[in-house]
Amino acid sequence: MARFAAGKAPFLRTTDHPSQGTRIIMRDFMIGLSPIILFAWYKNGIQVWLDGNNTFLEMLYPLIFILLGGFISMIMEGIFFYITDPQVRTLKALMPKLSSSFALIPGLLLAMVLPLYTPIWVLIFGCFVGTIVGKMLFGGFGHNIFNPALLGYVAVGFTLLGVINAAGGVFNQSEVLVDAYAGATPLSSLLVNRVIGYDQLVTPYGSLWNFFFGTIPGALAETSAFAILLAYAWFVYRKVIKWFTPVIYVGTVFVVSWVLGMVLGDGGLWFPTYSILTGGLFFGAVLMATEPVTSPKNPLGKVFNALFLGVLTVLFRYVGNFPEGVGTSIIVMNLFAMPLDRFTAIIRIDGLKKSSIIKLAILIVFIILIAVYAIVKANGMYTIGGSL
Amino acid sequence: MILQKAKGIRIDGRKAMSKELPLQEVLNPKFVYIHLLRQTETLKRLVEVGETVKIGQVIALREGWGPLPIHASVSGKVTAIKKVWHSSGKMVDAIEIENDMQNTMDDSVQKEQHPESLTKEQLVEKMKMAGLSGLGGAGFPTFVKYQSKLPIETVIINAVECEPYITSDYMMIHLYPEKLLKGLSYMMKAVGATKGVVAYKKYNQHIADDLQPFLHQYPMISLYPTEDVYPAGWEKYLVQQITKKTYASLPSEANTIVNNAQTAIFYTDMVEENIPLIRRGITITGEGIQKPQNFLVPIGTAVKDLIALCGGYTEGLDPSKAHYIAGGPMTGRAILIDDLIVNDTLGAVIVKPMPNNLPAVECMGCGKCADACPVYLTPTEIWHASERGDVEAVKKLKANKCIGCGLCSYVCPSRIEITDFVDKAKALLRKGV
C-alpha cells in the first residue's frame, strides 16, 4: 500500500503547462508595454537627438525615467515588506515576494503617463501614493480597490501639476521650438479655448495621422495610438486582457463625441476621431481600464464598466475642473467595480427575465443620462470654430 | 446571446493511452467487498458473516426515496463486515465475500422467454428488481426516472464521456454495440418514448462506426454527435442540444430521460437474462500506470488487483508526488491510500504524477472563471460572498446552479481552488436559512 498526495478536483489545470498562469500573463503584459516604451523613447529622446536638440545623455533620459518609475515602486514595496513582515528581511526572501506581487508595474505605468519634465521627487511622490497607499495598504496585489498607477497619477495631477509645468511639462526639446503648438497639447487647447474646429485643434499639430502615430505633444508614452494598438493586438493574442473592453470604451467616446459635435454644429468625423486620439484615451483603455484587479470580473460587468467609462470620460472632459477625463473616470469606476460586478453577475445568472431586463434598462438609461448631461453642458460652454 | 447559451471548453482528452489494449474481463477476484452505501444512503444488510451467497442474491437493501435491492457479485461465503475505501473518499462498511470460484447463480437469474412481450410496468419493475442505478457517476436509481409523471418523448443515451482519460463507456460500447441499442429500445418502451438518441463526442467517430451496422433495426433511434468540449456530457447541455428545450432541475421537465451508456448495456442483460447490476466497466489509466486499460469487473473488486494486472505503477513513480483519483480528473476525488474498492459509480481510477506546482498567486480578478462557467455563474463573487458569510448574496448569485464541473479551477491562472470555494458556498446554502 502506498500513500498518495492529497488534492482537489480538477486534477487538470491549464497552469499545469508552464506556458500558462498569472506570472506568464504579467510577463506578457510587460512584453506588450515594450513597443509603447520604445516609442516614447524614440519620440522624446532619439528623434530629438537626431534633430540635434539634446545631448546624448538627454537622449537616454526618457527611457531612464520610465524604468526609474518601476525601480522606485519596487524599492518602496520592498521597504514596505521589510517593515511590516519580519519574515522577509533578507534579499532572498524579498525577491520572490516582490515578483509574485508584480511590484514593478505600478511605477512603470505611472512614469509612462507623466510628462517628460516631471521632477524625480514628484515621480517618487506618485509612486508612493500609488504603491504604498493605493496598493500595499489595501493588502497588496489582488486586494487594491484603485488602480495603483492611476491613483498615483491622479494624486500628482491634482496637486503638483503646477510644479511639473514649471519644470518644463510635456514638451520635449524639439516640441518647445514649434511655434504652432503655442505651448498647448491638443486636448488642453480644446479645454482652454473651448472652441471646436479642425483648424484650431488639428491643424497646429499637422494632421490626424500625427495623432495616430503619436508625434504630437503629450505625456511620455500616451500619445501613440499606433504603438498602443500593437500592444493591444499582442494582449488579445496572448489573452492578457478581454478584447472588448478597450473597443467598447473607445467606441463609446467616439459615438458620444460625435453626437456632441453634431449638437454643437460640426458633425464631421474628424472630431470624434480627434477625441479618441487625444488625452491618453488609448493608453487608458488598453492598459488601465482592463486592469483586472480593479475592474469587474464577469464579462457583462466588463461591458458595462467600459460603457460607463466612455460616457464619464466625455463628461469629465467637458464638465468640471478635473485635469483630464480618462484617468479620473477610471478611478471613479474603480470605486464602482465591486457593486457593478455583483449587480451584473446577478443579471447574468438570471438570464433574460423580467427582473434582469429592468436592471439592464436602469443601467442603460443611467449611461444615456450621463452622456446627455455631458452634451448639454458642453453645448453651453463650447463653440464651433470657423476656418482660420 | 451573451447571457445563456450552453458552452464548454476544449480539453486535451488523453484517452488514447487507455484504448490501446482491449477491454479485459476479470470476473473472479478472490474477494469482493460490497459497500453498504449508495449515494448518501446507508444500506440495510441482509446477510450475516458465515452465510453462503450466490451471484445475484440480494444481500442488502437501499431504503428511503429510491429503494433498491443490492446483489452479491460473486458466489461464495461472507467472511467479514469491514471498513474499506469508497470512491467518496471515506471508509465505509462493506460485506466481504470470499469467492468460491463456482460462479453459482441465484435462482432468480434466468433467461426471459419473451422479453419483447414485457409490458411497460414489467420493464420498470425489472429496473427496480435488478438494482439498476446510473453508472455515469451520480448513482441515481434508474427506475425513479421512469416513474416520472410527465410525458417522456425522448430517451437520450449519454455516451459522451466528456471527462479526459476515461474510456470505459466507449470500450463497453465497442464490445456490446447491439446491447446498447437493445437496452435503449427497452428503456424507450418502459416509458413510452418515441425517440431514442445516442449522444457521443464528434471526434469519437468510432462509436458511430460501431453502432451503424445495427441502427437499421431500430428506426426510432438516431445518433447525435456533440461538440468536442467539456462538459458536453452534462445532462442539461445534452438535452438543450438535442431537444432545444431546457429545464430547471430534472430532464423530465423537457420530456426527456438521460441515461449512461453502460446503464443501457446492463439493462439489456436485466431484461433478457434477469442478471442484476453486479458488474461494470472501469478504466485504469493515467501517466502513473504501466499499461493503462479497461476492465469489466464485479462490483466490489479491489482496484489494486486491477492495477497489478496493468503492470503496476510506472517505474519511479513517487506516490507522495502523485494523485490517485477516483473518477474523472475534472470531478473526481483524491484517494490517499491506494486501497480503493470498485463501487457502482466508479468509472475510472487515474494515477498521475502531480505537475511541478508553482506557488499559488493571489486572485488578480481576470474573470476567466466567469468566462468559462457553463452555467454563467461569477465564481469570484460567490467566493467573496461566502467568505463574508453573506448567505443572501450567495443565494442571489445562484451558487446552487453550479454543476461542479471544475472548469473555474481548471482555467484559473493563479491556481486558486475556486471550485472548492464554490462548493463551500453551496454547503453554506444547504446549511443556512
Describe the model.
The complex is a heterodimer of chains A (388) and B (433). Chain A is mainly α. Chain A folds into 2 domains: 22-166, no CATH class; 185-217 and 241-384, no CATH class. In chain A, 66% of the residues lie in helices and 1% in strands. Chain A has 17 helices and 2 strands. In chain A, strands 1-2 form a two-stranded parallel ribbon. Chain B folds into 3 domains: 16-108 and 277-353, no CATH class; 115-273, NADH-ubiquinone oxidoreductase 51kDa subunit (Rossmann fold, 3-Layer(aba) Sandwich); 368-431, no CATH class. In chain B, strand 12 (195-201), helix 5 (205-215) and strand 13 (221-226) form a beta-alpha-beta unit. In chain B, helix 3 (168-175) packs across helix 4 (177-191) and helix 4 (177-191) packs across helix 7. The longest helix of chain B is centred in the middle third of the chain and has 15 residues, at 177-191. The model of chain B has no long low-confidence stretch (mean pLDDT 91). At the A-B interface, helix 1, helix 15 and helix 16 of A face strand 17, strand 18, strand 19, helix 9 and helix 12 of B.
Give the arrangement of secondary structure elements.
The complex is a heterodimer of chains A (388) and B (433).
Chain A: H1 22-50, H2 56-84, H3 91-100, H4 104-113, H5 120-136, H6 148-159, H7 161-167, H8 186-193, E1 195-196, H9 198-201, H10 208-213, H11 225-237, H12 244-264, H13 270-277, H14 281-288, H15 299-318, H16 325-350, H17 354-381, E2 383-384
Parallel strand pairs in A: 1-2
Helix pairs in contact in A: 1-2, 1-11, 2-3, 2-4, 2-5, 4-5, 4-6, 5-6, 6-16, 12-13, 12-14, 12-15, 12-17, 15-16, 15-17, 16-17
Chain B: E1 24-25, E2 31-35, E3 37-38, E4 41-42, E5 44-45, E6 52-53, E7 58-62, E8 68-71, E9 76-85, E10 91-99, H1 120-129, H2 142-146, E11 154-158, H3 168-175, H4 177-191, E12 195-201, H5 205-215, E13 221-226, H6 235-243, E14 256-260, H7 261-273, E15 279-285, E16 293-298, H8 303-309, E17 322-326, E18 333-334, E19 348-353, H9 368-372, H10 379-387, H11 391-396, H12 407-411, H13 418-431
Parallel strand pairs in B: 1-16, 11-12, 11-14, 12-13, 15-19
Antiparallel strand pairs in B: 2-10, 3-4, 5-7, 6-9, 7-8, 9-10, 15-16, 17-18, 17-19
